[in-house]
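User: Show me sequence and structure for the first protein, then do the same for the second.

Assistant: Starting with the first protein.
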Amino acid sequence: MRKKIDISILVDQYISRFPAEIQERLLMIRAIIRQAAPEAEETFAYQMPTYRLGDNLVHFAGYNNHIGFYPTPSGIAAYAKELSSYRWAKGSIQFPHNKPLPTDLIRQIVEHRVAENSRGGTQKGKQISLTDKAVEKATGKGWDEWFSILYQEEADKLQHKEIALLLSKKFGVDGWWAQSITVEYERHLGKRQVGQAKSGTFQTAVSKTMPGSLDQVFNLWLEAVKDTEEFNSIPLAEKPAISKTEKWRYWRANLKDGSKITITVGLKSEDKSMLTFSNEKLKDQDAIEPWKAFWKDYLKKL
């Protein structure tokens, strides 16, 4: 039986290919996206880290002289004035390595894309992030037509990859739209819910801006959990792993129920840092709200 690949490891491996200074910039963008879009699914597509929320949200990629950031044309159009000092095209932005990353602007763009993807109508009670008009314009068919076709093809018996391949090979739908139609079809069937990753597990995150430097906030966390052996009544499976870069601090732990916790501290300004609690590999959607409540209560104690 083929072993499932942990997508976060693929993204880690991708980032590790670059020199240390570029790795740090890529990690910074990754953390901003996770903070601004905690419900987004992290995946790997088009040979780069990719984030989906119903459909495509943003991508990013590393290059020798710049970071490529891809928030779709609408994300760029909404901030054209703020992006005037950068090289950009219809769907891409270049952030050169010889300039500081515009972290607040990146966060605003991601939040804008989250708002866009969260709007839209419903199809039989399931959220449709892309409008029927947009799908029809791009593919020649609306949602009802595509869902009818997929029913006729008995796509409800197929896996995600098989559905996307069917749309691409038999019906000539290009890669991005094939993936988007597949995701919405799975939502339509009730196979995929908000916060659900492609693996079938769920993820969530809670963030808060706190006063203090990176180390002050990170050490506050380390002191709070130094004797902790369980979180939300779930024991640790092993000793937590701690790692640091110049601008980021990480604390990672696996729990005995198979889920994973990642604590990230990123510098937001000279005297403020962003603390983010992330859960991955949750077994069902019902686990999301209890974890959110747990972390919000934890933040009050900190």
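Switching to the second protein now.
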Amino acid sequence: MPTDVLISEVGPRDGLQSVKATMPTDRKFAWIDALYDAGLREIEVCSFVPARLLPQMADAAEVVRHALGKPGLTVMALVPNRRGAEAALTSGVHKLTLPVSASEAHSMANVRKTCAQMVDEVREIVALRNALAPGVHIEAGVSTAFGCTLQGVVPEDDVVRLAAALAEAGADDVGLSDTTGMANPAQVRRLFNRVRAEIGEHTGAAHLHNTRGLGLANCLAAYDVGVRTFDSSHGGLGGCPYAPGASGNVVTEDLVFMFEAMGLATGVDLEKLIHARAVLQAGLPGEPIYGMTPEAGLTKGFVYADGHLPREVQA
């Protein structure tokens, strides 16, 4: 069914790599199944990184193989370098996401490369994609676009220049990430407008955090200036292990509720998504998860954007 916005679920990657526990592979399968059954059609299922650094992602190839069995699902993986990209492309993913920080300090902490070196890395990965799997989509996400806990202020001019360099290097889309949860709505509108003026249709997703309670407000600000793809995490899992204090992805359940209540179709069944929290908690027992909508339940008189009524749910 056509949707007004695309919700790109990043919990199985961003969420799982940010917690100490490792979710068993079969539980990952069950979680991805539940997310898919709720209507999510783009899921970042893993990252291809050395298992010694992120043991939570040691089963990446198996997880991709399982997710590829879901008809109509765009299977995404994050890759920090050429080696990871080669493994991901070999696994059969449909889309690669590449983190490229606008903060030199964060870039060195996260991938041990300068911002300029990461642009070169993206250029190599694009060439590799063209040779091995030309149908795979590449999105570069500008990390710390709105500020950095290590560097502090990240000049907007730096972000715009980096976005232009990434588009020139061959990235299909260039998104903006509030890695450290420092963004505000005025800043989000201004920076997305500036990036769109620079790279046009290559402007990609908004990856925003709720660290300071502004996640949904920032998503709405991004929507107001033309963004139509939004990253979020089921149960609000995730953050960034290399950005101190950067907790709290936007909660998928709350984001879907906001858009559907506004009359904007997401294609996601909120009741099924809320029930899927039990599958997530079974895979990560004791791990706190977040979300206001699951606690409060759907509002009386709630109607999905496509006009259908919800089933009764005990949230």
